[in-house]
């Protein structure tokens, strides 16, 4: 640019903004799988059977998902529902 400014490709800007807005990008593939099963309405026991893991493992995955999605415990919020909404938006 002749005036000394900087030009950034619009596609580069779009990709940077898209990455920043996607909270699911921080989830592991297994966490995404667990979240997809939560979105199907599955209980922890059903998720454990489907993935052939213990319910304790499922609980750990869910705790990690909620932390990565910045969904701390709150009396008025249903964190699993909020996680599913994030999944559906992603």
From TrEMBL:
Pfam assignment, any one: GerE
InterPro entries (UniProt xref): Sig_transdc_resp-reg_C-effctor, Tscrpt_reg_LuxR_C, WalR-like, WH-like_DNA-bd_sf
Organism domain of life: Bacteria
Domain HTH luxR-type: from-to ranges: 20-90
One GO process term, biological-process aspect: regulation of DNA-templated transcription
Keyword annotations: DNA-binding, Transcription, Transcription regulation
GO MF assignments: DNA binding
PANTHER family linked to this entry: TRANSCRIPTIONAL REGULATORY PROTEIN NARL-RELATED (PTHR43214:SF24), TWO-COMPONENT RESPONSE REGULATOR (PTHR43214)
Protein name: Regulatory protein, luxR family
Provenance organism: Streptosporangium canum
């Amino acid at each position: 640019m002749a005036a000394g400014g900087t030009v950034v490709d619009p596609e580069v800007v779009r990709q940077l903004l898209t990455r920043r807005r996607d909270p699911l990008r921080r989830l592991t593939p297994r966490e995404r799988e667990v979240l997809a099963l939560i979105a199907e309405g599955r209980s922890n026991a059903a998720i454990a059977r489907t993935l052939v893991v213990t319910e304790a493992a499922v609980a750990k995955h869910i705790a990690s998902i909620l932390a990565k999605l910045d969904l701390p415990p709150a009396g008025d919020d249903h964190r699993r529902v909020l996680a599913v909404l994030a999944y559906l938006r992603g």
